[in-house]
């Protein structure tokens, strides 16, 4: 059985306890080196075999796993953030199943959560937005027509845009084709939770320029929406006038 582990957004202590234990016990670790912080590999045993999947294709990853499984080794596949978001795990799970190998997934702290933490903000503020859209700009991976950014932007909801730091001009344009305006607040968070973390709060119209000035071209998330603005209402949950099951 292979353990697919969410590494968290970067900081070594933002992996789950379960994920850390799996790294400590692993005989083989294959990590997504383009985004996983290598400090996490310090949890591994000295004799652990470590592979960086940034240099491997799917067949090579599968070969390493199948061979290790045949030798009875404990295998960890380490993905950045949470594996369920742009993790490319589905094909791994299905190909491994054809070899009779099962996978168990351990969730991780996704970068969109670390980015909100870095900004001290809440995506779901009352009377502003109660919805978070996780999406990306189209790149070499196509995005379904109905999920075009300009369509998703029509909701004006809180949005976290992955994998798009290299296309900020187009991103600005497409966001403003929806309900956002050039003055809608947005932020770009580079390497959330890493030592090199940078947070820039700005507006949609200045996003590309601000990111360029800061030299940010990748490993960044763009957050968009009025949740980053000044206006909001207090939550009913802690309202003195409001009764709950626990507080009469
Ligand atoms: N599974 C990951 C996402 C992988 S896609 C997760 O849950 O976070 C890779 C994209 O995630 C990057 O292009 C960037 O947009 C974002 N990303 C990953 N780690 C990040 C971090 N620490 N800070 C900001 N963005 C990050």
From TrEMBL:
Q: Which CDD domains match?
A: Precorrin-4_C11-MT
Give the InterPro entries listed for this entry: 4pyrrol_Mease, 4pyrrol_Methylase_sf, 4pyrrole_Mease_sub1, 4pyrrole_Mease_sub2, Cbl_synth_CobM/CibF, Siro_Cobalamin_biosynth, Uropor_MeTrfase_CS
Tell me, which GO biological process terms does this entry list? methylation
Q: What is its EC number?
A: 2.1.1.133
Look up the domain of life of the source. Answer: Bacteria
Pathway(s) this gene product operates in, as recorded in its UniProt entry: Cofactor biosynthesis; adenosylcobalamin biosynthesis
Keywords, in A-Z order: Cobalamin biosynthesis, Methyltransferase, S-adenosyl-L-methionine, Transferase
Q: Name one GO molecular function term.
A: precorrin-4 C11-methyltransferase activity
* Residue span(s) of domain Tetrapyrrole methylase: 2-207
Which family would the database say this protein is a member of?
Belongs to the precorrin methyltransferase family.
Q: What is this protein called?
A: Precorrin-4 C(11)-methyltransferase
This chain's source organism reads: Lachnospira intestinalis
